[in-house]
Amino acid sequence: MTISLSHCFLIVHDYDEALTFYRDVLGLEVRADVEFEDNRWLTLSAPDQPGVEIGLEIPGYFPHTSEADRRATADLLAKGLLPGIIFRTDDCDKTFDRVRAAGAEVLQEPIDQPYGVRDCAFRDPSGNMVRFSQYPEG
To answer: Whole-structure pTM over 0.70, yes or no?
Structure first.
């Protein structure tokens, strides 16, 4: 038996704003963008990893979510307290320059970490942390 990752999800406050960031700034490719029953199924993936999709969801995406839970999720998102996402890059500094030039909020400029990667971090338009890690060659 084998298993592999197919989807992971990020909570965003606006589908279109997030789509612009992840598609136009980061260069991810749209795999699905389907509207149905007052919902939207929107996934993207890195061009070199088409089998791993990042789903974008708004707070309360699932119909059984209570209004209190929707508000709590939206509040956590606004504070930047939800888990983020880490991308691997072959050039942290070049990636940093490109994302910063697009206007993303910088959380951390590129630095060499004691655990062996060079990385940097931003906030996406919804407040999620988006980190880029460059691993040493070899």
So the answer is: yes
